[in-house]
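User: Fold this; tokens only.

Assistant: Input:
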Amino acid sequence: MGKVRAITGVGALLLFILAMNVVAIRRDAFTAAVLWPLAGAVVLGLLSLALALVDRAGKGAAERKTSSLGGVFASFTFLGICIVLYAFVSRWDQAWDLTEEGRVDLAPQTVQVLQGLTQDVTAYGLFNTDIPSDQRELEVAREKARLFLDKCAKLTPHLSVEFIDPQVERARLQALGMTYADPRGTVALKAGSRTRTIPLGGGKAQPRLEERDFTNTLINIMQEAQPKIGFLAGHGEADITRPEMKGLSQFLAGEGYVAESLAIRPGEGGIEGDYDLVVINGLNAEVGGDLTLDELAALDAFVMSGGRVMVLADPQFADVPGTPRKRILDWLQQRFGIVVGDDLIVSRVDDRLGRVSLMSDADATSVFRQVPVPDVDFAGCYEQSNPITRNFNKMIQLEAARSVTLADTLPDRVTGNVIARTLPYCFAETNLLALKQGAAPTLDPHEKSGSIGVAAAVTLQTEIPIGDSGQMKAARAVVVGDTDFIKGDSLVLGGHLNFIMNAIAWLTEREQLIAMRPTGKENQPIPLTPADETAIAWIAGMGVVQIVLIASLVVYFMRRRYA
């Protein structure tokens, strides 16, 4: 009887495994190829169970006791399996993000914006439900968008998600004020009467909802007004219309800023145009470089009325030192206490002249320990007391930077910090004319050395009241000793984008946007045929289980043979 029971038990197991394999391959449980083996497995399993009960009834007390202990052990094993299965079922949406570009975890800025919502927003997924079999990438895009939006909705009670078929529910689409949906998929965000759409096609090889597009659209739809930024032109600056500034222009528009060129016209009473921020992105010595007295007076009047200013200045390699840009730099020191050095920062450990790297505190401390510098105090590259660089953990690489520090005594009503500084093994070479002629940099006794500031942020309390609040308007300024890090492809390297956008957010009082932004890195997708998908699903599901089972059986029989 024991042999018959073993045969029926093994037969039931084999038929069950066969049925599960057919389900994994055909993806349909209600077919004859599945139901017949499953029925056979049930019949043989019941027969094996009946034989086991009969066999147990004929055993002695000692054998029944041993069998009971085995039953207890099997029960605990089954309970453990159930606990593991419950853990997987209850935590099915948890994941570890091991992807290079961070596809699983939401970026800190996305989380910050979602948790800061105070108004209800509805995200509509506009996807066709009738998708041709040869366009499965559209189905994948729809399901990925659904998973992403559901993940976002868990972070805030103010975001709801709904999916609509634009071909079936055209009347509802028009009632929502949406007249067009990308055939490859569209996500629309609606807050009150404002609606913004995100086409998933957008020239991509495969349609997908990018986190950066979603976050920027959410930022845009939630703001009542768009901050206006004027990029000064007319002195050789790299204003926002230049080709190398196209990337920054797109990112500014993505976060809801209006950026345009600005020319200060003397005699017109100052800076016109209701700008929230004026940016001076470099001053070219070969084109005159400096601001005129009238232009500087207009800029000063703008600041003293509570305006904000950002200055990015490269080292000055001029044949006549001190002539270009001196007026604007003197004004920065007198008005804000920001000292822009007439120098080039040189790193003792970098082979390329002028290049310096700023790192996170953890990385900088590790590197600093490897390159001992005696008698130098080092507090990290990024100032933790300023919102711009608080918890900043990305690398910034400056190809040619000049020092930016604060005066020993700041002007009245001015407070601020040096927010970015180099590693401790640098010095500021002041003989730029000699460098231009090919001489090697050397540290002189009067030159700065150690950890040198390259960016500063200050606040100036003006005498202009804010309505009847009893408070005064505060002017703000950020100065950085380099311009190359925001030009062209350099903008998206390391922490360059986050640093400049965080600085602009602080200057325009949009501190809720200060965070690490989502990446826009895309990997080329690998298209799979139906056979490929079936093979991967079978290997990941039934294949692995059966390999483990076969290995266990081999070990069991080998041990029985040689025991």
